[in-house]
Amino acid sequence: MVRSAALSGWSAVQSVSAFDALPRRASDLSMRKLRTRTPLGGLFSALIAAILVTSTSEAAQQSAQDSDSSRPTIGAHAVDNGPGIDGVLDEPEWADAEVAGDFTQREPDPGEPASESTEFRVIYTRSTLYIGVIAYDRRPDQLIADEMQRDSMLENDDSVSILLDTFHDHRNGFLFETNANGARSDALVEAEGSQPNRQWDGVWRVRSTRTTEGWIAEIAIPFSTLRFSAGNDTWGFNMRRLVRRRSEETFWSPIGLEANGTRVSLAGHITGLNNLQPGLNLRVKPFALGSSGRSFEAGAEDPGDDLTGGADMRWGVTQGLTLDMTYNTDFAQVEVDEQRVNLTRFSLFFPEKREFFLENAGIFEFGPPAGRSDFRPPFFKAFFSRRIGLENDERVPIDYGARLTGRVGGWNIGLLDVQTETTPLDEGEIVPSANWGVVRIKRNLGERSSIGAIFTNRQSDAGDWNRAAGVDFDVNPSARVNLNGFFIASQDPGQKLTDLSDNWAAGAGFVWRGSTWRANAEYQEIRENFNPEMGFLLREGVRRYNSNVDFEPRPQNNLGLRSLSFNLRSEIVTDTEGTLETVDTTVRLLGLQFRSGDRLTFFGSYNYEFLEEPFEIQDDLFIPQGEYESFDVGVFVTTDGGRPVSFFGFWTLGDFYTGKRTTGSSRVTTRINKHLNMATSWNHNNVDLPQGSFVTNVLQQRVNLALTPDLFFNTFAQINDADDLFAINARLNWIYKPGADLFLVYNQQWDTSGDAFPAINRAVIVKFTYLLIL
User: Fold this and answer.
1) Is residue 172 very low, low, confident or very high in pLDDT (cuts 50, 70, 90)?
2) Is residue 39 reached through a cis peptide bond, with omega within 30 degrees of 0 on the bond before it?
3) How far apart are CA 555 and CA 553, in angstroms?
4) Is the pLDDT of residue 53 over 90?
5) Which is nearest to 601 in space by CA: 584, 583, 616, 589?
6) Which of 187, 268, 528, 604 could lock onto 541 through a cystine, CB 3.0 to 4.6 A?
7) Are 190 and 252 in contact (CB under 8 A)?
8) 760: which residues sit within 8 A by CB, 6+ positions away?
């Protein structure tokens, strides 16, 4: 059977099946050792040469901006009472506030003034920060605003985003986004914006209105939602505006193409923030949950009916440190994972969605940047929170958990402790209760650099345990250059943490960011006995060489092109003796990005794979041990997401081990109006091998109905013919007051292997939360 993974609620990373090892042939080994010489040397030489050739001109072009520390500043105006949040800036509190504007384009014409004017004001009381935005538009009838749901992606709408660097450390911040419908989306920005955490939800309010001159947003952010340094009257601040019909992106404090849009160190400033009063900064969030579950499979345990409750608590111990606690934790309202078909030998990777593990999650990141997509999982993570509360794709209840995160002086601190219950699994295995602990510290150095350490510990009541400890560094000598590295060792019973013969991993990386050229290279070595049980590891006993070069010139013509794009990415994996195991190289032959927002890309790839042992890709269908080379070509197409109907898709055709494969993924998104949008996705594989052929399809349908920004209904249906499964997840969410929710969730799965489509299981869940702020 083709391997796939999906669970109702949330699911684990799929483990790799083990098979009896087959001996390697001596002739294979000698050939593979010989092949490692030229690719590595040539690839890295070319990378270094490209960087040296282009860096001089780009550095000169950027030096003035990098050396200029003067960024725009706005003074915040203190008021006794805050304005009413109605989307109209007519209250007297706004009258005496300073007005700021003069936005600069990042796209489509970098450095040019914005095509439409934007003005904003900042006022505050002792408990709340207020921001009023007037987004002028000469064509208000052409505003695009089709999103209303909480946490919807607002990149395809006319919208504004506000970045607050509350510690003024030029590294971390809070991001708040809204559009002309008053939709709310937010994120935690960490590590200079390289990894925004969009799963975080803050408590704040916004109301938007349309006018004959554009649109207005009135925003209120309680200081209790934020963490900040006491006595610091200056925060980092930036605002981005999107004019969607022009695919125009503008910033109050300019950001160039060489940086991401959430680069905290390039923000401007708010001054005059005095006598702020976040209160006790204590939030208690109790919940009550009722569920009714049925299993229709023979011999399966029926979940039955249940009524339970629990509570979460968040306490701002200081203005920089936050303590989160949870009791009888439940994540029933979390959306199910997307089903995927896995045609590789390695694990799938699913992102964390559970609220308790999300806030300040970036503090726990260790080692190499996690810059891969869900479909290209990170090679290694020292701590992966989805390991907690799941065993063999089955849930393990969490009794309680505590987490202390934040910043003290120049230190970033993360402490986590979670206790899971003893749990019987469906196969009869008993998972003993266990304690999961993480300690993570980072020390800031200069404006952008840091060093850090991590320690993880899983301790089972049955006596088994696993530990890992490591150090890492992240050095940014300039805004364009990054150097990073790490070393970590693991320990199991019978081992010593200091015995570093074969239980360690290490790596180093280099990143260059320019407006036209971007490049990175990294090296990692994972020893055979390295075993981070609280982390994620794609493969062990290997050395990995990875490099990437991007070239994106911007032609000066009238053909409607914004930029061209060329790319070379190569990953080479050997065993720890230097014997070649994998080469994965992709060349972006030509990428076209149009000023309309549409993209068209042609690419080709080469892959070499040595299988030390066969692996089962389908029932009784094995890929034999041996060496395999493959070539394929493909095309990637995406249309502007601001249109009522947009398309995303890629298709590849080429070799696949001993045969051929056609694979592709496509998605059609229909935004009918601000209340209703739909997305239809199709993932397809057609594999033709001498030993057998098969076809897999995963069809997904999303329907999102938002009656107001606080009341919405989502349906997510999936058909996976590899597992003969049809599943539906329907969720009603009413945010009846900021931070407090009522959820109604319905899950059901059916067996599609025959004609009758019998039900496998069904669950109905009602969850009520209440938020008490002190």
Assistant:
1) confident
2) no
3) 6
4) no
5) 589
6) 528
7) no
8) 295, 296, 297, 725, 749, 750, 751
Q: How far apart are CA 415 and CA 441, in angstroms?
A: 9
Strands 504-513 and 481-491: antiparallel
Structure tokens at 212: 């004959």
Q: Name, in order, each residue with C-beta under 8 angstroms of 198's C-beta and a sequence gap of 6 or more.
A: 151, 185, 186, 187
677-687 pLDDT, tens digit per residue, is 999 999 999 99
Query: Which residues contact residue 116 at a Cβ distance below 8 angstroms, ignoring those fewer than 6 apart?
Result: 135, 136, 137, 138, 214, 241, 243, 248
Q: CA 359, CA 375: separation in Å to the nearest integer?
A: 24
CB 543 within 8 A of CB 525: yes
Task: Match 């999936």 to its residue by tokens.
Answer: 718
- pLDDT exceeds cutoff 60 at 16: no
Residue 761, phi-psi category: left (phi > 0), alpha (psi -120 to 50), beta (remainder): beta
- Given this model, what pLDDT does residue 194 score? 67
pLDDT band at residue 375 under the 50/70/90 scheme: low
d(CA 212, CA 15): 57
Residue with tokens 């070799």: 655
CA atoms within 13 A on the CB side of 703: 8
pLDDT reported for residue 744: 96
* Alpha helical stretches, state H, 74-227: 92-95
Residue 370 and residue 388: Cα distance in Å, rounded?
19
- Cα–Cα distance for residue pair 747/764, rounded to 1 Å: 7
Could you tell me if 426 and 300 are in contact, meaning their C-beta atoms sit under 8 angstroms apart?
yes
Instruction: Return the structure tokens found at 321.
Output: 């440190």
DSSP state of 690: T
Mean pLDDT for the stretch of residues 125-147:
95
Which among 654, 652, 650 has a CA at the least distance from the CA of 629? 654
| Rounded average pLDDT over 630-650 | 95
In order, the DSSP letters of 298-360 are: TTPPP-EEEEEEEEEEEEESSSSEEEEEEEEE--TTSPPPPPEEE-SSS--------GGGTTT
268 within 8 A of 73, measured Cβ to Cβ? yes
Token pair for 636:
């990637």
Residue type for position 389: G
Cα–Cα separations (whole angstroms), residue 505 to 260, 367, 376, 609, 694: 30, 10, 20, 22, 38
Look at strands 118-124 and 77-78 and give their pairing: parallel
Written as six digits, the tokens of 102 are 């003069």
- Find the helix packing angle between 37-67 and 26-35, rounded to 10°: 30
Q: 560, 553, 708: which is closest to 640 by C-alpha? A: 560
Checking if the pLDDT of 570 tops 60, the result is: yes
Q: What tokens does 737 get? A: 């007051």
- Give me 581's structure tokens: 């195991």
| Nearest by Cα to 646 from 182, 297, 143, 144 | 144
Comparing 131-135, 353-357, 458-462, 467-471, which segment has the lowest mean pLDDT? 353-357
How many residues are there in the chain?
774
